[in-house]
């Protein structure tokens, strides 16, 4: 199921540039920090986790863009194989619309769309067979962000969004290219 979400997201990221020649396309890569994206030994709850994000946008109007983003949160593990080990990983695929408020070299935007999320936990032990638990979610994502132009083709961005399927706040920052 996760592979289907990744392929679907990549197609949506690049399909608009195949379908239309006018409009600006953007591709950005960044780091993400998300609540409920990792586990730790001192808490039974999920905690902040770090991930990698790929974001693609295509402007269909001057201030309106369609896009998608995929964030893969790095696996977190607690325990050891001798006594039992638990690993956890999550990822999200968002398909969004963005409305831009352009102020000179800073572009502020609001975003909203649909979110697909999945999480996987694995319980491992040297004495027993691994047990894997997977779950997929579908819901809404809402957020806002800012882009700071570094020239005609380069920008840095920061974005915060709330992913309702995982009840997760995701903060991202990175570097983007316009083409």
UniProtKB/TrEMBL annotation:
The Outer membrane protein beta-barrel domain, residue ranges? 10-156
What keywords are annotated for this sequence in UniProt? Signal
| Protein name as catalogued | Outer membrane protein beta-barrel domain-containing protein
Q: Does the keyword ATP-binding apply?
A: no
Short name of one Pfam family for this protein?
A: OMP_b-brl
């Amino acid at each position: 199921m996760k592979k289907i979400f990744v392929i679907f997201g990549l197609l949506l990221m690049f399909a608009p540039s195949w379908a239309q020649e006018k409009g600006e396309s953007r591709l950005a890569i960044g780091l993400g920090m998300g609540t409920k994206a990792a586990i730790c030994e001192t808490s039974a709850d999920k905690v902040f986790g770090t991930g990698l994000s790929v974001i693609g946008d295509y402007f269909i109007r001057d201030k309106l863009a369609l896009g998608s983003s995929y964030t893969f949160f790095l696996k977190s593990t607690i325990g050891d194989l001798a006594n039992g080990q638990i690993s956890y990983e999550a990822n999200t695929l968002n398909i969004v619309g963005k409305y831009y408020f352009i102020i000179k070299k800073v572009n502020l935007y609001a975003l909203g769309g649909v979110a697909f999320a999945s999480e996987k936990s694995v319980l491992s032990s040297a004495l027993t067979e691994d047990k894997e638990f997977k779950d997929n979610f579908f819901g809404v994502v809402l957020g806002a962000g800012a882009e700071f132009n570094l020239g005609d083709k380069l920008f840095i961005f920061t974005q915060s969004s709330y992913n309702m399927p995982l009840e997760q706040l995701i903060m991202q920052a990175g570097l983007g290219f316009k083409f």
